[in-house]
Amino acid sequence: MNPLTGSSTTFAELRDRAAELASAGTRRILGITGAPGAGKSTLAMRLVAALGPELAAFVPMDGYHLSNRVLEELGRRPRKGAFDTFDSWGYASLLERLHAQAAPDGDPVVYAPQFRRDLEEPVGSAIPVHASTPLIVTEGNYLLLDRDAWPRARAVIDEVWFLCPPEDTRLSQLIARHIRFGRAPDAARERSLGSDQRNAELITSTADRADLIVELADPPAELPPHIA
């Protein structure tokens, strides 16, 4: 995969940019995308924690993984993580509801699903999002993809940031995540360089559609277990 170069940006600069979105006066949605292992969910959760619950809520795309049973029925279980192993229409519909939520007749609370890595399954209605929250931060691999319902989702996201750490860093983080969730080291490396890498190449091909391509200048010294 050809290396992608983004502007070197500090977390404080990204936090301030997200805070501007949160202060716009109406509901805003910020999307963070990038290849597997880039650190998307880590950055998203850092931003939400820095802004606080009155300003921001975290709603990841991963809640729309198809269940393992459905993937097996479709013959896609070995490719779990590919764009067609998610319910893109469900995710787009959720973002449309969240986009409209702050209107006078919007839902007071929208309940979003959450992906549980310990179960390797999505869990429905796990994340409450209140109409009073001005900024929704979402993250996922395929926010910029131009097929299925992904363009519908992109249409209601105000900004999409493409996160691109150095490739060796991304791969080491991805392999470590697979090991953390139960894969043997050899299997973790094989998965990272196999189906995950094919997904990464597709995702990286969409980067030119992002509003910002960024390499985080000051990533956290230790990444938590939910590395994206």
UniProtKB/TrEMBL annotation:
Signal peptide start and end residues: none
Against Gene3D superfamilies, the record matches this protein to: P-loop containing nucleotide triphosphate hydrolases
GO MF, one term, reads: kinase activity
Q: Which Pfam families match?
A: PRK
Transferase listed as a keyword: yes
Q: Phosphoribulokinase/uridine kinase domain spans which residues?
A: 29-215
Q: Which SUPFAM superfamilies match?
A: P-loop containing nucleoside triphosphate hydrolases (SSF52540)
Positions the record marks as coiled coil are none
Q: Which InterPro entries does this UniProt record tie to the protein?
A: P-loop_NTPase, PRK/URK
Q: Which UniProt keywords apply?
A: Kinase, Transferase
* Name this protein carries in UniProt: Nucleoside/nucleotide kinase family protein
Organism of origin is: Microbacterium horticulturae
